[in-house]
Write a structure and sequence with these properties.
Helices cover 27% and strands 24% of the residues. The protein is α+β, with helices and mostly antiparallel strands. The strands form three sheets. Strands 1, 4, 5, 6, 7, 8, 9 and 10 form an eight-stranded antiparallel beta sheet that branches. Strands 11, 12, 13, 14, 15, 16, 17 and 18 form an eight-stranded antiparallel beta sheet that branches. The model has no long low-confidence stretch (mean pLDDT 91).
């Protein structure tokens, strides 16, 4: 397969999507028993590079500088709490990740930013600091580049790792957009042309996305002087899964994305809401969620409600809602269309939840649990969402398979923050029965792909959570 062979690329994507489906008769191929002693580190580090600790505490919005950048990264990608269970202490970040494996790495490119040497930096969220990878002459501005280490997901999830990695990238895009908006900075999403040469990633790492933070266009970099070296990810993490390499190559981003789709923007996010994001482990159904709260949460999915309208694609992901316990709203299945390409299904408008189309009534809690791989959290809360997209865009351009997962993850991040603002809990669900879920929703699995499940409700307190600042590695 070559870059100019779209038919072979499409075949590779369709083969991967079919092979990575969970089914009622069995899950997609995985690595078997998890070797916890062999788990790869959730953060890549660069020994030998200059390290700059950042400020995570309250810093008011203002021009880009080391202090305001530190605050933005803390609100979007940083550690906000710890889960302590016995001798095991794991960080909880402002951005979620499948299985807490964190395949996304962030790199800061700075030119003329107060308090930062011009060059390319790597962000270490557990130490909340920057590692200077290269001093360089950089055009004035600030950018954040995202890369992925898919081997972290493959270690636990096998063939489904590509899907989860791309969803995590969508979450990271949304988190950075919200963090920047909280500091009063506009964001634009740029094509990743030349990003590999720019970042010079280590083994197992793939450059993915470039975001400009209040800057115009891509950075111009000259005379880079590299220092330090990337710690290895771990030998052979993806070797058992040639399908992952194949689908990654088939979905490589094309040059140029066109102009961003205009957006009306939303009110500046409150930092306390960004820091309070958690993935709920259990819900309580003692009392229903107010319809007004749910209406405001679902409004976050409206295409125009993105900070600055930075998303450069027409909306292609739509939401089905299996409503369980919402005040004044009968249980049942609803559809939230988000623009062109929405499923054409008969229904009636839901009066208390603007934008929702009622498809049928009934208690769907048992169905939500079954379709979400038997996970109780899909049935315990107020509702369970299923995010879906047509497969037609993939047939026209195979790289859209990657982009559709970004959009689903971005919507998941919006839902987390909207639920948190309402005092509710949320949880992304990456395990679902693909074909069975599509059929249950009334869709043709050959024409629609289920991308993500998402549950919202009243979260039960998690006794393992500890709100304390992260302890930096001893060498910081």
């Amino acid at each position: 397969m070559t870059e100019t062979d779209p038919t072979a690329a499409l075949d590779a994507v369709l083969r991967y999507h079919e092979a990575s489906k969970h089914r009622a008769g069995g899950f997609a191929p995985g690595p078997g028993p998890v070797d916890w002693d062999g788990q790869p580190a959730a953060v890549r580090r660069y020994p030998g590079s200059y390290r700059l600790p950042l400020v995570a505490s309250r810093v008011p919005p203002g021009p880009a500088g080391a202090m305001t950048l530190g605050r933005m990264l803390a609100l979007s990608l940083g550690v906000t709490a710890w889960k302590v269970e016995g001798d095991d202490a794991r960080p909880v970040r402002a951005v979620p990740s499948s299985g807490g494996l964190y395949p996304v790495e962030a790199h800061v490119i700075a030119g003329g930013v107060l308090g930062l040497t011009d060059g390319i930096w790597h962000y270490d969220p557990e130490a909340h600091g920057l590692e200077l990878r290269a001093e360089a002459e950089v055009s004035p501005g600030l950018w954040v580049a995202l890369s992925s280490v898919m081997g972290r997901e493959a270690w636990k999830y096998g063939i489904r790792a590509f899907r989860y990695t791309q969803l995590d990238l969508g979450h990271a895009i949304g988190a950075l957009a919200n963090g920047a908006a909280a500091m009063g900075w506009p964001v634009a999403m740029l094509p990743p042309e030349g990003l590999g040469d720019l970042l010079q990633p280590g083994d197992g790492e793939t450059p993915e996305i470039l975001l400009s933070i209040g800057s115009s266009g891509a950075p111009a970099i000259r005379n880079a002087r590299w220092q330090g070296g990337a710690e290895p990810v771990g030998a052979g993490l993806c070797d058992p899964w040639p399908e992952l390499r194949e689908v990654a190559a088939a979905t490589a981003a094309p040059p140029g994305w066109g102009d961003p789709v205009p957006g009306a923007g939303v009110p500046r996010p409150k930092p306390q809401h960004l820091q309070a994001r958690r993935s709920a482990r259990r819900f309580t159904a003692k009392e229903p969620v107010p319809a007004g709260s749910l209406a405001r949460i679902l409004a976050a999915l409206a295409p125009q409600n993105a900070p600055g309208g930075f998303w450069p694609f027409a909306p292609a992901v739509h939401a089905f809602a299996m409503i369980h316990k919402v005040e004044g709203v009968a249980p049942g299945l609803c559809l939230l269309p988000r623009g062109r390409g929405a499923p054409d299904l008969p229904g009636t408008a839901e009066p208390l939840l603007p934008g929702l189309v009622r498809l049928r009534e009934g208690d769907l809690r048992r169905d939500a649990r079954r379709l979400s791989c038997g996970q109780g959290i899909a049935a315990e809360g107020a509702l369970c969402l299923s995010l879906v997209a047509e497969t037609a865009p993939i047939a026209a351009d195979p790289w859209r398979y990657r982009q559709l997962h970004w959009e689903a993850g971005l919507l998941g991040q919006r839902l987390y923050h909207a639920a948190t603002a309402e005092g509710l809990g949320a949880s992304g669900i990456g395990c679902f029965l693909d074909g069975e879920a599509a059929a249950f929703l009334g869709l043709d699995p050959a024409r629609h792909a289920v991308l993500y499940h998402f549950a919202i409700g009243r979260a039960r307190p998690d006794p393992a959570l500890r709100d304390r600042p992260p302890d930096p590695p001893s060498d910081w």
